Amino acid sequence: MKQLAIIGMGPRGLYALENLLIELSKADAQIGIHVFDATSSPGTGNVWDKSQPDSNWINITERALIGIEKRPQIDYSNVIIDEFPSYHEWCQFSQNSNEPDTFPARNKLGNYLNARYKSIENILEELDTFKFIKAEVRNINLKNKKLEISTKDNARHYDDLLLTIGHQPTTLSDQLQKWQSHVVSHNSLTLFENTYPITQLKPLKNNTNINIGIRGFGLAMIDVMRYLTINDFGNFKVINNDTFETIYYKTTAQELKLIPFSLDGLPLVPKPLNERIDSWYQPTKEELDSFKSEIEAVSHQTIETDTIDFLTHPIAEITSRVYLDLKSNGISHDLSSSELEVIILNWLNDNHYNHPLIQDSNSSTYQLIQNYIEMALGTIPVSLDYCIGQVWRHCQPTLYEAFSHAKVDNDVIEKVIALDERSKRYSYGPPIESMQQVLALVDADILTLDFVTDPDIELTAEGWALKNSNNKTITCSVMINSVLDAPKLLEVNTPLIKDLLQNDLIQPIHSKLGIETTADGYVITPKDKDDVPIAVLGRLAKGSVIGVDAILECFGPRIEDWAKAYVKRLNAN
C-alpha cells in the first residue's frame, strides 16, 4: 500500500485531504495517510488559529466567504465521512445588500475550519491507515526512492509528500539583525521580530507608560494596535452606526504611545461599506471573460511578451468604464474612456504618478484615511486610484486562475506579482471600522502618525530614536516588527526548507520567489536530478502560482488538480 505524508494541516491542507479522499473513493483505492501538524487546532493554520484573541479580525467580507462551499459525503475504505456545511450554512449567514458588510474575528472562521477537519479525523481514526502526528518536521530526505521524514522523536518513510505549510520565516533583514544585536547589549529594550502569535505581546497590554514602535503600517499593525489598546484602561466605542465613527475612551489616564512607520507611510484603504456600494466596481461577466482570455493568451504563451501590458491594459479598460459609470456619483471630469485609460496606465506603472483625479498622497495621513473612509461609505466622489483598487480586487480571482503556472519569462512573473502586491493596500484593505479606530487612537493621543513615513532611526541606549522630516523626535523602548516576510525561497530559514534546498529536492522559480511547480502542484527538480514525489501547494509556491495568500484560494481548483493528479499517478503505478 502506498504511503502519503501531508505536512501542514491549515485550510489548504484540509481541502487537499478532502479532495484526496473524494478522488480515492471514485477510484476505489486506499492508501496510508499520515498528517503532520504542530498546531493546537488542525485545519486552521496559524492565521485562523481558534485560540487567538477576538481583536484579530478577518479582512475579507464575511459575504465573500460564500466561496467556502459544503463538503459532500465521502465513502472511503468502508467508512462514511458525512457531508459538512458551507461556511455560510454553518454560521447561518444572512445579509441584505444595504447592510454593512461584516468582518468577524478570525477565530470564528478558525472554529469552522477546525470542526470541518475534526469531522474527518474522527472517522478516519477508525482506520489503521490514517494517523495524525502532532509534531514539527525537522528533515526530509530521499533514500532509496523513499522520502524519509524526520521529527524530533521519529523517522518514517513515504512514497509521496504534500507540503502545505504556509508562511515560513525568512532570514532577518540587515535592519532587524542590527536591532537584534542592539537589544542583546541593552537589556532594558525589547524587540519582537514577528507579530504573531499576538498573545506574546501580553506583557505590554496594560503597560500605560511606554513608547512602542511598530515597523509596518498594514494589517498586522492594526492587529497589534487593537490588541494593545483594548485593555484594562480603555476601549473603543462606535458612536455612529452608519459610518462606524469611533472614539477611544480612557477609563484611566495613560501615557501609552504607539508609533507605526513604513517606507512610504501610505495607509490601508478600507473596503466599501456594503454589497450595494461594492457592486459599483464589479466588472461585467463579458469584461471578466475578455480579461481572462487576454491573460491566458500570454500565460499559455500563444503571445510572447516582456511587459505586463497584457494585464494593465485590460484593467485600465475595465476601470475606465466603471469610473465613467460613477460620474452620476458626483465625480467631475470631462475625460473620454481612452483618456482615462492613459491616466490609469500611468498610475499602474508609476506609484508616484500624480493627477487631479488621483488621491494626493502628499495630504496628511490622517486626512488620507478620512478621505478613503468617506469613499468607502459612498459619501464623497471616489478618486480614480480607489476605483482602480476595487476593480482590481474583483479581477483578482480571474487573474490568479488565468496566470498561475504561466509559461512566460520569470521576470514577467515577478512584475505581475509585484503589481498585485502593490494593489493589496486597496484590494486586501480592512473594514471601515478598523480605519476609524486608527483615527480614534490619534484623536486620543495614543497613536501618532507623525513618524509614519520612513523616519530616520538611530539606535541609542534608550532604544530606537525616530526622527521625521520636520526634525521631530521620539524614542521607543519597545519595537514590534509587523512586516510579513515575502516568500523568497532562498531566504527561508526554517530547517525543513533549507534541508530540501540543500538536497536539491526543490528549486526556486526565481531568486526572489518560491518553489517551481507543475500545474498539478508537483515540484520541478533540477534537470540533472530524477523527479521526486513532492507536491507543494500554497505560499511557498509563489511564482508558480499567484494569489496564494487569499483564504478562498485555499478552497480552489489548484488543490483539486493536485488530488486528481495524485490518484492518476497512483493508478499508473
Helical segment count = 15
- Given helix and strand content, the structural type is alpha/beta
Determine the CATH superfamily of the largest domain: FAD/NAD(P)-binding domain
The number of distinct β-strands equals 19
Question: Which runs of at least 5 residues are low in confidence (pLDDT < 50)?
Answer: none
Oligomeric form: single chain
Beta-strand residue fraction = 5-15%
- What spatial form do the alpha-carbon principal axes imply? globular
CATH fold descriptor of the largest domain: FAD/NAD(P)-binding domain
Give the integer mean of the pLDDT values.
91
Q: Which architecture name of the largest domain does CATH use?
A: 3-Layer(bba) Sandwich
Short description:
This is FAD-NAD(P)-binding protein. It comes from Winogradskyella pacifica. It contains 15 helices and 19 strands.
What secondary-structure arrangement, pairings included, does this model have?
Blueprint: E1 3-7, H1 11-26, E2 32-36, E3 74-76, E4 79-81, H2 87-90, H3 106-124, E5 130-133, E6 139-143, E7 146-150, E8 155-158, E9 160-163, H4 174-184, E10 190-192, E11 211-215, H5 219-229, E12 234-240, E13 245-250, E14 257-261, H6 275-278, H7 285-299, H8 309-325, H9 337-349, H10 365-377, H11 384-403, H12 410-427, H13 432-443, E15 456-460, E16 463-467, E17 473-476, E18 478-481, H14 495-502, E19 534-536, H15 557-572
Parallel strand pairs: 1-2, 1-9, 2-5, 9-19, 10-18, 11-14, 11-18
Antiparallel strand pairs: 3-4, 6-7, 7-8, 12-13, 15-16, 16-17
Helix pairs in contact: 1-15, 7-8, 7-11, 8-9, 8-11, 10-13, 11-12
